[in-house]
């Protein structure tokens, strides 16, 4: 069995949330979890832990930071200092803690919409005010609209959460766009939390440029959060990195958020991440080829078979942001496909209240499974 060759019974037998959230007659295409295997070096790293019974307190001091530095240098030509890294178990925890460290209750945090739902919660659940900065569909792709905020800035704004590559639209921002973001953050004196978890999943024609790599000025106000969990398909192993673009930024964070409150990644996550980042690229290259084939097939099939649904071709991620408003479905598009196609998508309204006519589809699944998912959706629309 290859890395991308799994059938539905095998996938359903996995004890994962993706395959057990919905009833058994529903095909899931929702949470950002790939229906593939893992890189052989990761399997070997975890097997070593079992073989040697290394379940005691782990001696891995600095291993994750060093692997992060090697990965950033080799993949993105971004040279980082190990002292600027904090290991953490989860990027949602990283976003919550950063918001709490660099803003106060009642102050505002800027966020592009549509957005990964936990980012909205990181703002709202901590008593901050969410300033929505909606992206615009220009007919080719979804673009930032920073000018609309410039026209009416909020004096209480302290931060911006910036998703790059963007979830759910699949944008891989180019250097000109990122330079505009950097100038914007500096102009408005904003701390930026830059979520770059999908950095490895960028398709030909695009490139990932870490925001903090642009200049010392933007680095000094940027917290980069990332993980191997998306690109190497290991989200359950709970391992992530926060990189602070300047020592003063890290010192402020550590003053506000005690390290014992954050905890640390487990040894399984650290060893798997180091193995993936250092040795897993050949496997990831194979996965990226399958993801591109899935993406291209999905875009062509939607254009041909689902009139009324619009997809702007994702430049990155394995997520498709479907504009279903042309179907003129009353209520939620996600609910329609769940009820009538038995397909479980992410409901658009969870990415912002104004998006019930949208849905997010995860196409990181074997091609036959993806064809069954889309076939069900096509049949549901035709049978309305």
Characteristic terms for this protein:
384 residues; alpha/beta; Aspartate Aminotransferase, domain 1; Aspartate Aminotransferase, domain 2; 2 domains; seven-stranded mixed sheet; four-stranded antiparallel sheet; globular
Provide structural commentary.
The protein has 384 residues and is of the alpha/beta class. The chain is 40% helix and 16% strand. It folds into two domains: 8-39 and 281-382, Aspartate Aminotransferase, domain 1 (Alpha-Beta Complex); 46-279, Type I PLP-dependent aspartate aminotransferase-like (Major domain) (Aspartate Aminotransferase, domain 2, 3-Layer(aba) Sandwich), CATH 3.40.640.10. It has helices at residues 8-13, 40-52, 63-76, 91-102, 117-124, 146-150, 175-187, 216-219, 247-256, 259-262, 267-279, 281-305, 333-341, 367-382; strands at residues 27-28, 85-88, 108-113, 129-134, 136-137, 142-143, 157-163, 191-195, 222-226, 240-244, 310-311, 319-323, 343-344, 346-347, 358-362. The strands form four sheets. It has a seven-stranded mixed sheet with strand order 2-10-9-8-7-3-4, sandwiched between helices. A four-stranded antiparallel sheet has the order 11-12-15-14, with helices on one face. A two-stranded parallel sheet has the order 1-13. Helix 4 (91-102) runs parallel beside helix 5. The chain is globular.
| Structural class label | alpha/beta
Q: Kindly estimate the percentage of residues that lie in beta strands according to DSSP.
A: 15-25%
| CATH topology type of the largest domain | Aspartate Aminotransferase, domain 2
CATH class category of the largest domain: Alpha Beta
Physical arrangement of strands within the biggest beta sheet: 2-10-9-8-7-3-4
Give the SSE order as H and E letters.
HEHHEHEHEEEHEHEHEEHHHHEEHEEEH
Q: Roughly what percent helix? A: 25-40%
């Amino acid at each position: 069995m290859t890395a991308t060759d799994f059938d539905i019974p095998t996938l359903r037998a996995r004890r994962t949330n993706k395959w057990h959230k919905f009833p058994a007659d529903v095909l899931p295409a929702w949470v950002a979890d790939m229906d593939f295997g893992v890189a052989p070096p990761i399997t070997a790293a975890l097997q070593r832990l079992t073989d040697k019974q290394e379940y005691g307190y782990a001696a891995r001091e600095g291993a994750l930071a060093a692997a992060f530095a090697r990965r950033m240098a080799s993949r993105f030509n971004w040279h980082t200092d190990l002292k600027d890294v904090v290991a953490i178990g989860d990027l949602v925890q990283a976003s919550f803690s950063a918001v709490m460290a660099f803003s106060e209750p009642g102050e505002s945090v800027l966020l592009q919409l549509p957005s990964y739902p936990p980012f909205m919660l990181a703002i709202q659940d901590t008593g901050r005010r969410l300033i929505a900065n909606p992206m615009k569909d220009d007919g080719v792709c979804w673009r930032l609209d920073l000018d609309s905020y410039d026209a009416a800035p909020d004096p209480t704004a302290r931060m911006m959460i910036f998703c790059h590559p963007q979830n759910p639209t699949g944008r891989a921002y180019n250097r000109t766009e990122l330079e505009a973001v950097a100038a914007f953050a500096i102009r408005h004196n904003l701390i930026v939390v830059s979520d770059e978890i999908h950095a490895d999943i960028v398709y030909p024609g695009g490139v990932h440029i870490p925001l903090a790599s642009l200049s010392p000025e933007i680095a000094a106000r940027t917290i980069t959060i990332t993980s191997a969990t998306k690109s190497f398909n290991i989200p359950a192993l709970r391992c992530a990195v926060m990189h602070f673009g300047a020592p003063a930024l890290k010192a402020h964070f550590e003053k506000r958020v005690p390290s014992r409150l954050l905890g640390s990644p487990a040894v399984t996550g650290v060893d798997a991440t180091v193995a993936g980042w250092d040795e897993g690229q050949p496997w990831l290259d194979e996965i990226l080829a399958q993801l591109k084939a899935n993406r291209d097939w999905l875009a062509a099939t939607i254009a041909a078979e689902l009139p009324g649904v619009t997809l702007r071709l994702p430049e990155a991620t394995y997520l498709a942001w479907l504009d279903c408003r042309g179907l003129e479905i009353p209520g939620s598009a996600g609910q329609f496909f769940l009820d009538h196609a038995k397909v479980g998508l992410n409901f658009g309204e969870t990415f912002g209240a104004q998006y019930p006519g949208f849905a997010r589809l995860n196409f990181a699944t074997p091609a036959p499974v993806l064809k069954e998912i889309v076939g069900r959706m096509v049949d549901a629309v035709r049978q309305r």
